[in-house]
Design goal:
This protein is about 5% helix and about 45% strand. It is mainly beta. The protein has one domain. The strands form two sheets. Strands 1, 3, 6, 7, 10, 11 and 12 form a seven-stranded mixed β-sheet that branches. Strands 2, 4, 5, 8, 9 and 13 form a six-stranded mixed β-sheet that branches. The chain starts with 9 loop residues before the first strand and ends with a strand.
């Protein structure tokens, strides 16, 4: 996937939006955590003072105050024992936050294809986790890229990413980047 130019992700240029993480009720494991990666666009290594980047809030809380320091590289965080990272897709290496959540107890909606908004198989449902994103205070020239995934575990150790949304189901926020926005019905969606 190329973060600039032809973008496979669903893209918005609106700085405040709802991002939906969707998971098939028949396939997600409600006993484990899933993760949303919020990554800085463009690939960035030497950002200087992080305060110069502005801020991003998720569900009303600044990422930096809720989740501590960002990571640099390719998700997941270093706690994965064999280095099983997301497959390369033009976004990483960059700074990112990793937000954990569970699909357990979440509301469901009828299944549909997030790429073209067509109905999914009859009777199939999706769990829905909503993240309210506000990037209106992010410094000019920067955007965000979102990935959804989970890890496998052996003896309590994370071993590798075992399930992730395909690149065509990633999402991005771009204003000053050439991300080729795709028009989608509101609210904006990302799915597993």
């Amino acid at each position: 996937m190329n973060a600039y130019g032809t973008e496979e992700s669903t893209v918005t240029t609106t700085s405040s939006f709802d991002l939906w993480a969707l998971g098939k009720t028949t396939e997600v494991d409600t006993a484990i955590d899933y993760y949303l990666s919020v990554a800085l666009l463009p690939k960035t290594q030497n950002i200087g003072d992080p305060a110069n980047l502005g801020s991003v809030t998720v569900n009303g809380t600044a990422l930096s105050t809720l989740f501590g320091a960002s990571e640099y590289g390719t998700p997941p965080v270093a706690s994965v024992s064999n280095g099983g990272e997301l497959a390369p897709h033009g976004i990483f290496d960059t700074y990112y936050y990793q937000l954990a959540f569970s699909f357990a107890g979440l509301p469901t909606i009828a299944s549909y294809n997030v790429q073209d908004d067509t109905a999914g198989p009859a009777g199939e449902e999706l769990f829905k986790q909503v993240f309210q994103i506000d990037a209106s205070s992010l410094a000019g020239g920067y955007g965000l890229h979102f990935d959804l995934y989970t890890y496998g575990e052996t003896n309590g150790q994370r071993t590798a990413i075992t399930d992730f949304a395909p690149f065509s189901h990633d999402a991005a926020y771009c204003v000053d980047r050439d991300c080729g926005p795709v028009k989608v019905p509101e609210p904006w969606r990302c799915s597993a």
